[in-house]
Amino acid sequence: MYEKKCFCDRIAIRECEKVGGTMSPAPMYAVVDIETTGTAMDGSNRIIQFSCVLVKDKKIANVFSTMVNPVMKIPEEVQQLTGITARDVRKAPLFDDLAATIYELLQGTVFVAHNINFDYRFLNRELERCGYPALEIAGVDTVQLSQILLPTLPSYRLAYLGRYLNIVHAHPHHADSDAMVTAQLLLFLLKQIENLPVHLLAQICRYKNALLFQTGECFANVLKRKQRLGEPVPDYLQNAAGILLRRNERSMQKRQTSVFPVSDKDKKKLFLHFLDWRKAQSEMMNQVYGFLKDDLLQRVIVEAPTGLGKTLGYMIPAAYAAQKRGSVVISTATTALQTQLVEQVIPLMKQILPFEFEAAVLKGSRNYLDLEKFARSLKQVQSAQTRLLQLRLLVWLTITKTGDLTELHLTKYQNPLFDEIRHHGPVSLDSNSPFFEFDFVQRQQLLVKSADLIITNHAYLVRHATELGELQKRDLIVDEAQHLGSIALKANRDVIDFDELKIICDNLLVKMESHVSFSLQEVQTQQFLTTAEKQELLRTVRLVDQRIPQLRAKLFERFVNAAPFTTVFYEETLRLSKFLGFVKENLGDIKQISKTRARLTQIFSKLEQRFAEYRNEGRLDKAAEIFLFELTEQGQSLLEALKSWERLSLTELEKLSDEMLVSISLPLNQAGAHLRLQFSIFRTKNFLEPVVYANFRHVLFVGASLRLPGSPRYMLDQLDLDYDTQLIHLDGVFDYGKQALALLVADAPDISRNVDEYTKYIGKTLTKILAHSAKRIMVLFNSLAMIQKVYEQLKKNGVNDKRVLLAQGITGSNEKIIKSFKLEPNAVLLGSGAFWEGIDLPKDKLELLVITRLPFQPPDTLLNRAKYSAIEHEGRNSFTELALPETMMRLKQGFGRLIRTPTDRGVLIVLDSRVVSRTYGPKLRSVFPAELPVKMITTAEIEEYLSNFWKK
Predict the structure, then answer these.
(1) Which of 349, 542, 621, 756 has a C-alpha 20 to 30 A away from that of 945?
(2) In the chain, what are the domain boundaries?
(3) Phi, psi of 748 (to 5 degrees)
């Protein structure tokens, strides 16, 4: 029986009339999902399952579902995805025989689908193929509704939405199950629309035509009803110059003091119903609290293995310490980890702790939305994609208390709108703006002054340590401390891009002097600026535009022209004495640009202030407003590009330490290549202590990988700490003897002898592993080039027919790849770089980890050459003191991806024989947990060991 429910009385159930592309106030929704032999709409594919759920009066009215015989082979990948095979459809009706029923069923309904562009169009093509006219009924897309109404979700795939809303999804990628989940999702979304305030509904309806089909009518119908009732703005919202914002509610409760629970008994009582008891975590809390109270100790390292619960292990004692000793600054490696602390850890702590506390987040201003710029963007002509994003932001603004754009959990922020609406810091604010008092950056800075816990990231910490430390009045906890050194190097890198400067100047001049569109002449006629002001602005920009190419040509002649003809990418460290000579020879031009930059800063500041005044007074027409907005934005871009120019002053250059690197780079094989000067430190020695740590009362370093067997000085050097700094190591909580296995392949070919042979070996070995293991697998590489070659080989071997192949640099952004890997149970991820660390994949999210090549860093980069040279100059061995410890640390972090909880099970396979054959092999193997079973095997034995492990 292929029709699970038939419509015995369809006409009686469907009370609405046919409305031909429009929506009635109380429609019958037909929620449709189809499965097909393929997605191409060229007539070569057919429907294999059709399902429809009718929704009326806020409940499910009826269901119709049937398999469909496509009279063609169902591709293997479709069978894998849907579970629908030839046997399932062999006796099912043809679509030709179902077309009349489906056509009649859908008349007068509102067609609803999750990604309506596919289901509606594909179904119409099939109906037309069978001789029926195309459907002309209204349509609603639940993807867009979800994006608008649930703006902070990381995914809008139906399976994820079902899990998020606790909707039972029995058979994902089965039309009957998908249609039922979509119907329940629709009911939820319609209820959410009912809860939106009238003002917000009106804003959404203003731009409803940007949405697919009649999706916007879902909001319009509710708006009409609510306008008749005259609902007020809810108390928790405020109207900020036409945009609804969440009120900034702050706790005014008097600060309480509670006694820290030192004993296990007290902690168990405190954690009851919230946390599982962990002896090592309790010990860590006591160690951290004791250190923060100690006035003698200033620096301590705590190594807390994965699974111990290190985050709460330092956050809870920090909250107790902050009650009596003032704010504690907590720095973690990335903004994503900051978000994790705020969204997951802080709410849990507020449930656990017997006192109120405030937490504030500090990150770069560009992470926040600028309300003034966003309001301006709403008035401009936008693409449908950008309008959808704006609607999402309007709803988000009624939810967010921070204005932090990372709350949107987008995999990428590449829409031009984000460049337009990002905050440029307090200096960019206009005190006369109607949004000034609501500004998110100012709100965060005010919150910091009274916060108990200040959560920031390493990059922000390095740049703002002085203000964060408040003259040693605050304590600092550095989480993920193993990353602080490398992030500090990046945070102290300044670049002068001569070609980018020229491009910005050219664009500015074209804009200001245009004879075919709005220009400075037109704003002058509106009395916005005088003739003298216009001429000075043009003169200063022209000066930069002329001098920059001249200096670029001289730099090229002096430092690049002698490069070998065969060089593809020129990059070289400049001897300071030689570079100083160049600067002295061209000091006149360099100083002239410095003075011009200072004058441009004054000019654009004055223009922005005047622009705000004229706009508020209504003295400019629309064209002038748009022109001046774009002009000031481009002006800020020029000033930003010139920000590092002071690095060329003689005073600055003569102060450069031995740890500073000056380099020049230029791709030689491409047109329009950019010549860049770069100034950076190449190691953190004598930098982190005076620049960062000295600003705080105590500094605690926390991480899962802060020591290496046989290399005790490595991490201390990276963190710029004394060799006698106290290190507390806490015992791990995992039973690696039962949970994991390491297989080190001794007969893998030597990559240093033949790269092509090694690549073929990797592709062939991975193909065999994947054929015999259905586990979710991550494969780690050292280069994107190798990933490309292996990816092509795996595709050639047919791996992508049965597995979802995800490859860094090929199948999407890193964020998109990680998201897909977590969602796809049969995924294979090929990654390098960032995939070695910082990704949390617990339970069955990762069960097999393959390392194709030991993670040695390339020795010939400028940074590594400088680091190795400095160590050799000190009479030490750069391989044993730096290159090998770096690889050991990376290998340790790579293995750390595998086991994340006490119930995880997983296997590590290393396909680089050097871990077995080289003299440094034992040192590399020493990074694995002592109780981990390590087997040195041949390639042919891999399958047997895997099979035996999974049978246990």
Answers:
(1) 756
(2) 10-232, 494-681, 736-951
(3) -65, 145
* Residue 108 is labelled as binding a ligand: no
3-state helix, strand, coil in the chain (%, to 5): 50, 15, 35
Q: What type of residue sits at position 800?
A: N
Q: Which tens digit of pLDDT belongs to each residue from 663-705?
A: 999 887 777 889 999 998 888 888 999 999 999 999 999 998 8
The reply to whether 567 sits in an annotated binding site is no
Paired sense of beta strands 660-667 and 569-573, if any: antiparallel
Task: Give the pLDDT of residue 500.
Answer: 96
Across-strand partners of 776?
none
Alpha-carbon span 768 to 780, nearest angstrom: 17
| Residue at 359: amino acid letter | A
DSSP for 756-801, written as a single string: HHHHHHHHHHHHHHHHH--S-EEEE-S-HHHHHHHHHHHHHTTHHH
182 labelled as ligand-binding? no
Are 946 and 886 in contact, with CB atoms under 8 Å apart? no
What does 35-73 look like in DSSP terms, one character per residue?
EES-S--SSS--EEEEEEEEEETTEEEEEEEEE-B-SSP
| CATH for the stretch 10-232 | 3.30.420.10
Tokens coding 936: 């040195």
Of 74, 125, 120, 71, the closest CA to residue 93 belongs to 71
Question: Cβ atoms within 10 A of the Cβ of 607, count?
Answer: 19
* Nearest CA-CA partner of 231 in 222, 218, 242, 240: 222
DSSP string, 862-875: HHHHHHHHHHHHTT
Question: DSSP letter at 476?
Answer: E
Q: Is 311 annotated as a binding residue?
A: yes
Per the CB < 8 A criterion, the answer to whether 179 and 102 are in contact is no
Residue 827 host element (H or E): strand 827-831
Q: Is 309 annotated as a binding residue?
A: yes
Sheet of strand 569-573, all strands in order from the earlier edge strand to the far edge: 494-497, 676-681, 660-667, 569-573
Distance between CA 1 and CA 66 in Å, rounded?
9
One DSSP character per residue, 563-622 reads S-TT-SEEEEEPPHHHHHHHHHHTHHHHHHHHHHHHHHHHHHHHHHHHHHHHHHTT-S-H
Mean of pLDDT over the chain: 89
- The answer to whether 308 is annotated as binding is yes
Cβ–Cβ under 8 Å, residues 168 and 40 = no
pLDDT tens digits along 572-588: 888 888 899 999 999 99
The secondary structure of 272-283 as a DSSP string is TTT----HHHHH
Strand, coil or helix: what is 516?
coil
Q: What is the DSSP letter of 413?
A: -
At position 468, the amino acid (one-letter code) is L
> Which portions of the chain are predicted below pLDDT 70?
1-21, 250-256, 411, 563-567, 657, 838-839, 842-843
Confirm or deny that 142 is annotated as ligand binding. Answer: no
| CA 206-210-215 angle, 5° bins | 90
CB 258 within 8 A of CB 323: yes
Tokens of 433: 């703006």
pTM of the model: 0.81
* pLDDT of amino acid 253: 55
Please tell me the class of the 736-951 domain. Answer: alpha beta
Between CA 952 and CA 946 the distance in angstroms is 10
pLDDT of residue 650: 86
- Check: CB of residue 256 under 8 Å from CB of residue 340: no
pLDDT of residue 563: 67
CA 811 and chain centroid, separation: 16
| 305 annotated among ligand-binding-site residues | yes
Integer-rounded Cα radius of gyration of the chain: 31
The whole-angstrom separation of Cα 391 and Cα 381 is 14
